[in-house]
């Protein structure tokens, strides 16, 4: 008996041919999964379609589109225990990358077909569901400048061009960050609260890796004193993220907590999962294991050493722990 799922498809996402992409998805999934396909429109968003699917009691929900579509659909699935499938067809595809999900249609469909799920954390920002991150200041201004026309024309380069343009208008602001344990006051050009973030979300990369199932949120504070410092800090974050290391510059700070309240002076724009949602202040709370997502099968690490079973095996320990024999003889 086939599985069944609601497929939420954004026909204007990305730069590909949506008709061909939908045909490819159907050809890969429908031999195994009975798809009930619904399209987003200017009037009907992905979250509305996903909410309706939840109300119908569907077995699985699959979303196909850009980060905005995926995040919107995911918000309706929070705390429902309904498995959520991701097929990225957007510009940045940060959602899939952050969760280790392939961003090609074929590989994403294979991930869904394998049926392996993992519970990941989500969060709420001012009562708005958050899957990836909330950006204050520089990132929000950059997202606003990278409009739909630019993304359609230039793809991911649209964000880079918008970031370069925003550097010319870089402004710092006073920020107060409150956790359950402390209150931090400083000056910053960008503050990012991340639940999950790929390395390309550079301004979220203060700590050594963003863990999306630890029940905590990560805040990165970037506080350059000038444009040259902003470029240097951004490059350092990119390098440290690529190497899996924490940032070490004095103008970059980071901390981890379950709950943050953030206020700024002056008021700053806020972006949540790639969409402008308003301005500061914000309050962000983590919801541990709030979303069940289809993920690739994790292959077990290969053994680095396997000697048992060899004939006449003798192992000499060059620096044996105190109390242990220097020579271990193993016989079959």
TrEMBL record:
One of its GO terms (molecular function) is methylglyoxal synthase activity. Pfam families: DAGK_cat, YegS_C. Keywords: Kinase, Transferase. GO terms for cellular component: cytosol. Residues 1-129 form the DAGKc domain. InterPro entries: ATP-NAD_kinase_N, Diacylglycerol/lipid_kinase, Diacylglycerol_kinase_cat_dom, Methylgl_synth, NAD/diacylglycerol_kinase_sf, YegS/DAGK_C. GO terms for biological process: methylglyoxal biosynthetic process; phospholipid biosynthetic process. This is Diacylglycerol kinase catalytic region. It comes from Anabaenopsis circularis NIES-21.
């Amino acid at each position: 008996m086939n599985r069944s799922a609601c497929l939420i498809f954004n026909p204007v996402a990305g730069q590909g041919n949506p008709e061909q992409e939908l045909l490819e998805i159907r050809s890969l999934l429908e031999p195994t999964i009975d798809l009930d396909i619904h399209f987003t429109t200017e009037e009907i968003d992905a979250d509305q379609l996903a909410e309706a699917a939840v109300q119908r009691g569907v077995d699985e929900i699959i979303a196909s589109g850009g980060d905005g579509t995926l995040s919107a659909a995911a918000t309706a699935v929070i705390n429902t225990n309904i498995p959520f499938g991701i097929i990225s067809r957007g510009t940045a595809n940060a959602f899939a990358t952050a969760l280790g999900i392939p961003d090609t249609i074929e590989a994403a469909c294979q991930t869904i077909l394998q049926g392996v799920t993992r519970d990941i954390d989500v969060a709420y920002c001012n009562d708005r569901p958050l899957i990836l991150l909330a950006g204050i200041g520089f990132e929000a201004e950059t997202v606003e400048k990278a409009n739909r026309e630019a993304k359609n024309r230039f793809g991911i380069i649209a964000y880079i061009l918008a970031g370069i343009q925003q550097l010319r208008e870089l402004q710092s602001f006073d920020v107060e960050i409150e956790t359950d344990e402390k209150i931090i006051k400083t000056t910053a050009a960008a503050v990012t609260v991340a639940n999950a973030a790929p390395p390309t979300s550079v301004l979220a990369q203060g700590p050594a890796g963003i863990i999306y199932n630890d029940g905590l949120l990560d805040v990165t504070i970037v506080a350059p004193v000038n444009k040259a410092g902003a470029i240097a800090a951004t490059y350092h974050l990119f390098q440290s993220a690529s190497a899996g290391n924490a940032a070490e510059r004095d103008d970059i700070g980071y901390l981890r907590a379950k709950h943050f309240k953030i206020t700024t002076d002056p008021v700053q724009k806020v972006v949540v999962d790639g969409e402008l949602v308003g301005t500061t202040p914000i309050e962000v709370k983590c919801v541990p294991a709030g979303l069940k997502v289809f993920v690739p099968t994790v292959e077990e690490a290969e053994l680095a050493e396997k000697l048992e079973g060899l004939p006449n095996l003798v192992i000499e320990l060059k620096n044996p722990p105190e109390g242990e024999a220097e020579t271990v003889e193993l016989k079959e």
